Amino acid sequence: MRDLEEDLTRTFRAAGLVAPNAEPGFSVALTARRRRRARTRMAGAFAAVVAVAAGMAVLASPLVRQPDPLVRQPDLAQPLGPAPLPTGSLPTVDLSLSRPIRDLWPDAFVELPLRLPDGRRYSVQAELGGDAYLVVPWDDQKRFPPVVFDARTGVARELGTARTPGFLGYDLAGTYLTEHHIAWVVAAQDSHGARYVEVWSAPRDGGAAVRRAMFGPGDISVSVAEVGGVFYAGIEPFAGEGAVYRIPDAGEPQKVPGSEGYTLRYGPWAVHRSARSNAGNAAVAPVETPGFWNVATGERRTPRALSGVTLIDCNPRVCVGRAGGSLVSYGIDGSRPLRTSDDAVDPAGADTCDSCPSQINVFYDDSYGRFLQLRLRSGVYLWDRNTNTVGTQQDGSSGDGDVIDMGQPGGKQHLLLLSRIR
């Protein structure tokens, strides 16, 4: 049951490409909830909800810290005044001339076996290099803890999740490719029926898996990030406000001061739960401008508004908005605005069904800045901001991160790996 949200998200996203548009806001609920539980960011992370009894205790176990230098960027805490936007003179990409992504980036496509050596199906989460992939096995009943699959040798390496004495079933509730590690979250149930959430990690290059922390019981979901070898966990309850915890090398997790009501959304970048986006409805009133807070460095960023652009969605590096019938993407500080042709979205305020605002879902690559995946009324597009190029995705293709699943024609898994696009 804790993988239901992920399954529904993928199913509705694929079905939405070939079905009539839903009422405004239908797909937003699934997309927004999934985005709230974002990781440090890994393709197709499983932001499953862990339903457990009320109340919360915190436990942890040690892990050797691997320090890494931090580079602090200038704060963008205070929103600047709207920047003028000469829309007509912006670099423009014509959606009607977009080519299939398979034709645009043929070197970024890979084919993998449909099943692991043990016969299980799997979902690819990230490319690890050297023909190795982080994958999550699954069957008709559940998803299993992640493994590393070497496509060249055909060997699948189990990362290992040892059950805590006295605990019963373990269900995967999230997978994250962090700075130096592979991390995953499992929901565990004790002999009294109380449910807890455990955070596990293993080094990317091999080594034993370690249980880093346990949270619960509580009606919570957990997201994970790593900065400088230090792990952070965002605790998001169904009821009440959550917080962000720093997980030390030893001892109990420590609440980050001032993090009440915040949730990790883009790696270490936290957003207050009151923040919302317009992804899914291009014609509604402007959204509350989100403020991004890096819980590791303390840096804060607030998107700069552009004159004439209605904000749809932002991450810590880039924003997407609409200007007339165009979509505009730009740096969070207002830099390098780019636009699509005027046929991207229907005009706002139209009062006929044929002109209803299109559903707009926005997904980002792992760097949160180069690639934008857009679902519009006219189709699904992949927008490369580096080259201002847009490719058309096939019906049913989906992805959130650096891996886009292109289906299984010919009994193989077909993937587009954004990390291979130069």
Automatic annotation (TrEMBL):
Highest taxon listed in the record's lineage: Bacteria
Region (Disordered): 389-408
Transmembrane segments: 43-64
Keyword Transmembrane helix assigned: yes
Record key words, sorted: Membrane, Transmembrane, Transmembrane helix
Name by which UniProt lists this protein: Uncharacterized protein
Protein's organism: Actinoplanes philippinensis
